[in-house]
């Protein structure tokens, strides 16, 4: 019954989702080109506020706990499990004070209103998964960028979304590059739960009535750990708090 009900609701959701993306694309352009970085960053945050609110149509609610644990005015490497595209707008909105950038596949850097523009101009790294040298070079530049400016970067080290919530093994390479080239940073582990239920039927129709939770764990200062230590601690704390039902 829920799946049947979801068809018309999902149509309305996607119509409004596309509306917000198209509306904010020229707003981003104006902010970036006429007023600079801070205006562009604000426009992206506001866009993602509306994208988060838009999911209320689907009965989605959010809980984002633990932000008070995170230091400010230092670079952060936000490490999270990845369950769906619905992980991203809440991170951008609720973590706006840390100015998050993303390690993203290069295909997202073109063709998507608002999203592609932000990825290209907002400081994110667009990586080619088939070209390891290019990918590591982009991650290196992003690490140096956040380290210099006290920004944050979001990386999903599973490499792809978990369609059932069950975590995939974390990949080492991207995290190792950020560890090396953002030496003043903290690893900020975040566990995401229930986001996968938004797409349990696929991209259409969408799941209804889900409570998506984000739990921020204690940050780990890079200079206090070897890479192997911080990698193990980060993966363990994230995966141990994932609920798969």
Structural description of this entry:
- The protein has 245 residues and is α/β, with parallel strands linked by helices.
- It is 44% helix and 16% strand.
- Strands 1, 2, 3, 4, 5, 6, 7 and 8 form an eight-stranded mixed beta sheet that branches.
- The two termini are 20 Å apart.
Compact description:
Helices cover 44% and strands 16% of the residues. With 245 residues, the chain is an alpha/beta fold. Helix 4 (115-121) links the parallel strand 3 and strand 4.
Rg from alpha-carbon coordinates: 18 Å
Give a quick account of the main beta sheet: strands, pairing sense, barrel closure: 8 strands, mixed
H/E element sequence: HHEEHEHEHEHEEEH
Oligomer: single chain
Quickly give the structural class: alpha/beta
Nearest-integer average pLDDT: 95
Low-confidence runs (pLDDT<50, min 5 residues)?
A: none
> Please, how many helices?
7
Q: What is the end-to-end distance?
A: 20 Å
User: Helical residue percent?
Assistant: 40-55%
Q: Into which percentage range does the β-strand content fall?
A: 15-25%
Characterize the overall form: globular
| Count of extended strands | 8
